[in-house]
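hey so i finally got around to running the thing on that chain from the lab meeting. sorry it took forever, my laptop kept dying and i had to restart like 3 times. anyway pasting the input first so we r on the same page abt which one it is
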Amino acid sequence: MAWPRSLLLFVAAGLALAGCGRQAERPSTVLGTPAPRLAAPFTGEVLTVTEAGAGPITRDTPFSAEAIAALFPDAEVTTADLTRSGRTIPVIRVRQAELLLTIESSADEPVIAAVHAGGENARGPNGEQLHQTGGPARFTPDQCPVDPAATALSAVCRRTPDSHVSLVFTVGDFGRPSNAASPYDQLVAHGFLADIVWERSPSV
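ok and heres what got predicted. didnt touch it at all, straight out
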């Protein structure tokens, strides 16, 4: 029995539409860089800051409270604004047991610019811990330039100029000792670690 030509065209059109529907259900491939995958949630106690980031936070982590909360499911995550040099900086704060993170946004786009790691459970790349003394001795004077404008003697120490990790040492209430020692020697003798920082674009 011969099928009418109009019926054959109708069936062919139906099959073509069904095929299009099946193709639409397949995951599409978009040209360009794929969306970044977030790291596994932080479930430990001690968080280490490395060149790659601060614990699970990397340069691919979005600056959003939702994304940060997903990385720290057991933490208290809040947002706030900081004022620095007349500029308002949005920040996200993470508080979990003996760990405190302050995550700063970039001024130009909503990405993470820097992470300040504090608390007893924050560590530097080589196990450095806040309030640890003698840290500047592990750096050369060129790696720890002293801030001449600071009220208290302090320095931001970096292994290399392009390092994403910096350790901030200060003498705190000790002030500026009035003796013949160089600022670097004073930091070695009296300084302690005050901040562990990861930066997206190192400040040179």
